[in-house]
Specification:
305 residues; mainly alpha; Four Helix Bundle (Hemerythrin (Met), subunit A); rod-shaped
Length: 305
């Protein structure tokens, strides 16, 4: 079965279009995943880590202010120090509230609840420490300071676990996207190879060395009318100038008829066409075919009119 060039081109273009659609869809999916990961990192992971670390720093500053006040409970600026430490407590609560409003996975949420309980205990311990300092009772101050050390250690340990889990969550998100990128890179490389194969296939499908055209011309010269039409199509005319008989007289223009068998060979079965041309020319009913045959014979001999 002979497949037309049009059909072959359609098949090749369909392959290339399908390949383009698949690569485009995969690229869109990959870019969407990368965008989601970047948004998650920017809007959730980084703020979470910052908030966890900032809460610990602010509460450490609150504790440091009270420890300073505990050194001299009779200092004139004691109320200012206590008030400043209360400001740190309010700031830490605001930061923690912002953190709790962010999204977390199940493990991070469990650790966040544990850290919250430790933070509340630490905060209440700081309040008791402040009250003891204001009372001026050295034994109460010492007892509150020692208890506060335990609260602080428990809070920082729990906060460190939460911070580590948050970092691990961001790391897993990054590694997931890296795996997605690696898969997409392999797919793109395969697509490039498939595209090269599709291009080679399209070239192969559309390159038949003129077989389809020769099949059409063979059908055309099966009739005498087809021979005459092809003869006219393959005949070339030109003009040359000479000085008349013996090189004397005025310049005379002379028509030159030529045929190029080499060019025809790409479009037609020369042997079969030659037989039909000679047959039609011998019938004597087609001067143009006779002229075409004579020009062809001259071309075989390497001469012109």
């Amino acid at each position: 079965m002979t497949v037309s060039i049009k059909t072959r081109l359609a098949v090749a273009m369909a392959l290339l279009a399908s390949l383009l659609a698949v690569v485009g869809a995969l690229g869109l999916m990959g870019k969407t995943g990368s965008n989601d990961a970047n948004r998650q990192t920017y809007s959730n992971a980084l703020p979470s880590v910052n908030a966890i670390g900032e809460v610990e720093i602010v509460m450490a500053r609150q504790r440091a202010a009270l420890l300073r006040a505990a050194l001299d409970p009779a200092a004139p600026d004691l109320d200012g120090i206590i008030k400043k430490s209360k400001g740190f407590a309010d700031q830490a609560s605001d930061i923690w509230s912002r953190y709790m409003a962010l999204s977390r996975d199940a493990e991070q949420d469990r650790l966040a609840l544990d850290t919250e309980s430790k933070r509340q205990a630490f905060s209440q311990g700081l309040d008791k420490f402040a009250q003891a300092i204001k009372s001026g009772d050295q034994k109460a101050i010492m007892r509150a300071a020692l208890e506060n050390n335990d609260y602080y250690a428990a809070f920082t340990a729990s906060n460190e676990k939460l911070k580590h889990a948050t970092f691990e969550g961001a790391k897993q998100l990054y590694e997931t996207q890296q795996q997605s990128f690696s898969r997409f890179r392999v797919i793109v490389l395969l697509a490039i190879g498939a595209g090269a194969l599709a291009a080679a296939l399209s070239w192969y499908l559309t390159t038949d060395d003129g077989a389809a055209v020769r099949a059409w011309t063979s059908a055309a010269f099966a009739s005498d009318m087809g021979v005459r039409q092809l003869a006219r199509a393959f005949t070339s005319y030109g003009w040359s100038q000479g000085m008349g008989f013996g090189g004397m007289g005025d310049v005379v223009a002379k028509r030159v008829t030529s045929v190029r068998p080499t060019s025809m060979a790409r479009l037609i079965d020369l042997d079969a066409f030659r037989v039909r041309v000679e047959s039609v020319a011998a019938a004597g009913a087609s001067p143009e075919v006779r002229e075409f045959l004579e020009a062809w014979q001259r071309a075989d001999q390497g001469t012109r009119d």
